[in-house]
Amino acid sequence: MKILLIFFTFSLISGAVRCVSVTGYSGGSLLVDSGKTWYSYSSKYMAKLPEWRTIINNRKHAWINEGRFTLFQNNEGKIMIYIRDLIQQDAGRYQIGVESLWYINMTLKVEEDSCCKESKRVMVNIGETATFSCEYSQNHINDPKIIFKEGKDSIETIYSTSKKTERFSVSDDRHNKLMTVRITAVTPDDGGVYLCGVWIYSHSYSYSIINTVNLHIMTKVGVSRVTGHSGGRMMIKCEHPQHKTKPKYICKESDGCSERKNPGVQDEWMENGDVSLYDDTRAGVLMVFFRELKAADAGTYRCGVNVSHYTESFTELQLDVRDDAKYPKTKTESALHGEEVNIICQIPEEHKVHFCKEDDDHICQNISTSAVTEMSPSSERNEERVFTVSISNVSVRDAGVYWCGAETRDTHLTFISLTTKIQLNLFSE
User: Fold this and answer.
1) Which letter does DSSP use for residue 261 in this model?
2) Distant-in-sequence, close-in-space partners of 199: CB < 8 Å, separation ≥ 6
3) Does the structure show a pLDDT above 90 at 327?
4) Rounded distance between C-alpha atoms, residue 405 and residue 172, angstroms
5) Would you state the pLDDT for residue 373?
6) What is the rounded distance in angstroms from the CA atom of residue 97 to the CA atom of residue 92?
7) Is the dihedral of CA 53, 58, 62, 68 positive or negative?
8) Closest Cα to residue 194, out of 173, 208, 176, 174?
9) What is the dihedral of CA 47, 52, 55, 56, to 10 degrees?
């Protein structure tokens, strides 16, 4: 979302109240410098006139926030007025002040302008150069450019005509009305919300028309490659042991990771589109289960964790989906109650065998019922391994759907590619 950031400076004649007019844009935001002292131990207030609808009335230090409205103390000890995401209903008159000490009356106009409707999301790997552009109006081609960054309880000037910050540079394309910001050798501390635009100065006030850019710093911890089979299943276990309780996700790079799949809850299986996800906070593992692989699922993914609001750590996953006729897609086995059933599994030579049973949610879990008495190679054929899985003393609970597949372990990921579906039927003599 682009925002209108207005710095408005004025003085009050002793015994008089200054009435100030400011203009913002629908969808944007407004920042006003009152030029008046904060007074830490006195109550600050903001009210909408003429009905005197109280928005803020608080004695807090440094930063007072109520919804989209904030009063905070700047580095000079003055009150700043910050209104986010302006709507037409915000237009009108306000009174802002410190109880029993001073107040100002402010008239706010909210207008429509195409320059102030959209925000940007920029992702850059740690150590690389972040580049983003901010549009400005034709009316402000000759005005100086400025950059701010939102802090926890403040808004800091990063770049202006009077202030330069190391690693930050700005270029101005007046023909296309774009300012371009470059930040070299980014670090996790560079992540956050940037406000960039033009600075306009008048005799009694100054203000800035600003765009909002959300900068996310990414740390890639590794790259893994895995092969799945069309019509089969795939379980991916992404390990984040240092961030066990942090929210985790998987996304596809071909769409810019705009659709991030996450469980939404922790320690519980949840469906999200064509996958099921489980955020295991005890182990720090995100389990991603593709319920039926398709050719369209192939591509590069990020399996990551949100370390903070604007810093992330991820493993790059390159998924190949093949339609391989050498692995049977489905098989049916039958067994008598109380007897033994032998199920043959075929997997690639270099992988570990994985055998599991589907539960009611179609998630394939490790076998926890009748014992697997044998799981050993019986032959070698075209670089494929053939295993026999024996389940003894078969009972009613053993009937159902099983899957054979291959398990691969990488530094930060475990892949389980399930290739053959086995329907086990139980009957009596």
Assistant:
1) B
2) 7, 143, 144, 145, 146, 160, 161, 206, 207, 208
3) no
4) 57
5) 39
6) 17
7) negative
8) 208
9) 60
